[in-house]
Amino acid sequence: MEPLDAQVLRQSLQWQAQGQRVLLVTVARTWGSSPRPPGSLMALREDGLTVGSVSGGCVEDDLVHRLRQGDIGLDAATDRPRLVRYGVTTEQAHRFGLPCGGTLELMLEPLSAHSRLAETLAALEQRQSLQRTLDLRSGAVTLAPGAHDAVPHWADEHHFVSQLGPQARLLLIGAGDLSRYLAGMARGMGFDVTVCDPRPEHAAWAEGAEPGIGFSREMPDDLVQRLRPDRRTAVVAVSHDPKLDDLALIDALQTEAFYVGAIGSRRNSATRRQRLREHFGLSDAQLDRLRGPAGLPIGSKTPAEIALSILAEVVATKNGVAAALASSQPSTQAVTHP
Asked: String of b and e for 50-79 (b: at least 16 CB within 10 Å)?
């Protein structure tokens, strides 16, 4: 499943190709509680159809209402991008479904050929991070290399800057029940998922996998070297075979992957670290990045529960809160992974 914001851009491009006028809506800023973070996207077609979201639904409904009332224009030749604000008062916050008096600002951008959606999607498919600068006077867009984790901001009073990053990616080493659950959950959350297992007895794993999940019979180190994990990639070794897991981990720990983990007991994890240090020359700094046993300590027992705990830690790391979660856990925890 493609990430929601990429779906918005792709659908917008398709609507444009069909001759439909489209408004791209970007969450520019938020205060207090907000259902969607800055940078989130939705698209509004001239007949009221929408894709994506910027709130819990009420703001979207109001935008459709304002479109039908003629308060919002979608003609890029005559209507310029503009900023609107929702939830300034407590009454408005309740009306528009913004909890705790939250406020959000939205950039409304009538799309045209100058919006450069096709170039944007092509760059994201090549795993590039983009900085997208919108000129409010003309509606023209300029693209430049960017940082996927940067928030929207104003370059000056006429230029609004947003950031777009590639799809989060998960590489799983080892096919089996655990990887089946983990791959399915991650796919449902918008990750691009590839499972790697060269063992002949697992060659049929892909036959029962969900659509869109990749399967490779390469050696794990070859796959890691070919895909070159970036800051939007997580690598998790779940094969229980040190020969496979270690091959992947050695290379993954030397990349920019935001998460590198492996299942196993605490004793096996300690042994793995020692083995990687003594026999493969990995430094303490590299080994400090290795999550093992992988997953948050939620008392998981079944493959599905273990998959949930691992994916929760992956997402927490991607969102920058894994350290806070770890510091809040008791110092002694039951081992939940075999």
From this structure: bbbbbbeebbbebbbeebeeeebbbebeeb
Look at strands 130-135 and 141-145 and give their pairing.
antiparallel
- Residues 202 and 239: their CA atoms lie apart, in Å, by 11
Torsion of CA 179, 181, 183, 188, to 10 degrees: -170
* pLDDT at residue 244 greater than cutoff 60: yes
More confident position, 77 or 248? 248
What is this structure's pTM?
0.78
Which pLDDT score, from 0 to 100, does residue 148 have?
Answer: 66
Instruction: Map tokens 């205060």 to a residue.
Output: 31
Two tokens at 145? 């290399």
Distance CA 299, CA 313 (A): 14
What is the pLDDT at residue 93?
A: 60
Instruction: Report d(CA 203, CA 195) in Å as an integer.
Output: 11
Q: How far apart are CA 132 and CA 45, in angstroms?
A: 21
Cβ atoms of 111 and 134 within 8 Å: the answer is no
Helix (H, G, I), strand (E, B) or coil at 35: coil
Nearest-10 crossing angle of helices 220-227, 242-252: 20
What backbone torsions phi and psi does residue 154 show, to the nearest 5 degrees?
A: -100, 125
Specify the long-range contacts of residues 60-66, CB closer than 8 Å, at least 24 apart.
62/86, 62/96, 63/23, 63/25
**Measured at the alpha carbon of residue 223, what is the angle toward residues 302 and 303, in degrees to the nearest 5?**
5
